[in-house]
Amino acid sequence: MPGTSQPAQTDEQLEAAFIGEAPLLDSTVTLVEYDPQWPQLYQREAGRIRGALGDVVVLLEHVGSTSVPGLPAKPVVDILLEVPDSADEGAYVPALEAAGYRLVIREPDWEQHRLFKGPDTDINLHVHSPGNGQTERYLLFRDWLRTHPAELALYLAKKRELAARTWRYMQHYADAKGEVIEEIVGRARAAQGPPAARPSEPAHREHAPGARQYDGFSAAYAKHTGSSAANAYYDRPAIAGLAGALAGQRVLDVGCAAGHLSALLAGRGADVLGLDISESLISLARKEFGAVARFEQADVTEPLSFADGSFDLITASLVLHYLEDWGPVLAQFRRVLRPGGALVFSVHHPGEDWHWFDRGNYFERELLEDEWELDGHRQPVRFYRRPLSWTFGAVRDAGFTVDRLEEPMPVAGVDAADPRMAGLLRTRPRFLYFRCLAG
Q: Which pLDDT tens digit goes with each residue over 361-408?
């Protein structure tokens, strides 16, 4: 992961970075218990920011302590925004100011960082350019705390210790947390281990560890998956077949990517909302298929904002193998499905990953890394493999009953599209498909 956290700042450096007078704290720091409303506040601000900037948004993420369920924090929602060039203030600052945001910090010598405050909610909107040294750190630290309770407890203990001290400026409190953050990030990186790799057909979706895997080549990925044999002649037909009759059904398409499956389901009469964590892919989906389906950027590892029983069907095409822990996500799916509603999802076939990556123990759950090349762009993509029994256990524990389990064949037309892949899809395990009922 490039870069390190921001070096500790002197009073003079901090005062120079502020536009206007730097606000004094001269007190201890107040931490409050985790508030389930914080993700909803982020979603509201994200909608405003996207509305103000449109395609200028390269990446938008909820980060910091308020993005980690169960972690007490200052009641300030931290948001990370990437724009094409954060030094080019004319491209985004006037639009944000027109929407009520205030530029309060300018730090050209530190990753061209800008900081805005919000119109009516206490937020810190951090702005960087793509390729900065902080985005991966923000996301890795957040995702690691979400899935490792002992690390969360360690971080919270340090936060409480530091919060009890008196600080002249709030930034000095933030700087003091740098050491424990570096330790935790170091362990998170080490846990990823040396990557295992093999060339593969890039038919997978997003929601991977380090969740911005597709933003750098989203256009090439969207073009490929629109017509590739594994997607157009295998995965999407299999998902649609398990979905059944769709006329009048309310469908949540999780990990919608560039919107091809959402459009297919909408064409069969469903009212479809597509979700994806990738802002770039959501932008492409809206441009191509916005007339037939709705699309929103969202991270399904955070609490969903929908009411109980909002959907008749959830589809998750090639998404869940990017998540280490399915429990919280499946619980959210179960909640927003009506009783008797269906979850249809596809994942990597457990036999495929174990065999092709030449792993020693089939029964382990482990993080793997692949490398794809599209239009000359080479991109590492990480995901988890796990035994089939683990998948069944996670589905059962979330309150679902498996209605159907399928290893499908490709549909007509695949031989003309890609004869080599057609042969592989007919003779080797590729993906595994589940239809599960919320009972």
A: 888 888 887 777 766 666 777 888 889 999 999 999 999 999 999 999
265: tokens are 């389901």
For the record, the structure tokens of 356 come out as 């092709």
**CA 298/CA 130 separation, integer angstroms:** 20
β-partners of residue 313 are: 251, 342
pLDDT in tens, 344-359: 999 999 888 777 777 7
Between CA 57 and CA 417 the distance in angstroms is 35
Looking at residue 4, its pLDDT comes to 45
| SS3 assignment for the chain | CCCCCCCCCCHHHHHHHECCCCCCCCECCCCECCCCCHHHHHHHHHHHHHHHHHHHCCEEEEECHHHCCCCCECCCEEEEEECCCCCCHHHCHHHHHHCCCEEEEEECCCCCEEEEECCCCCEEEEEECCCCCCHHHHHHHHHHHHHCHHHHHHHHHHHHHHHCCCECCHHHHHHHCHHHHHHHHHHHHHHHCCCCCCCCCCCCCCCCCCCCCCHHHHHHHHHHHHHCHHHHHHHHHHHHHHHCCCCCCEEEEECCCCCHHHHHHHCCCCEEEEEECCHHHHHHHHHHHCCCCEEEECCCCCCCCCCCCCEEEEEEECCHHHCCCCHHHHHHHHHHEEEEEEEEEEEECHHHHHHHCCCCCCCCCEEEEEEEEECCEEEEEEEEECCHHHHHHHHHHCCEEEEEEECCCCCCCHHHHCHHHHHHHHHCCCEEEEEEEEC
Give this prediction's pTM.
0.57
The Cα–Cα gap between 252 and 334 comes to 12
303 contacts 69 by C-beta, under 8 angstroms: yes
Instruction: Estimate to the nearest angstrom the gap between the alpha carbon of 432 and the chain centroid.
Output: 22
Q: How many CB atoms lie within 10 A of CB 108?
A: 11
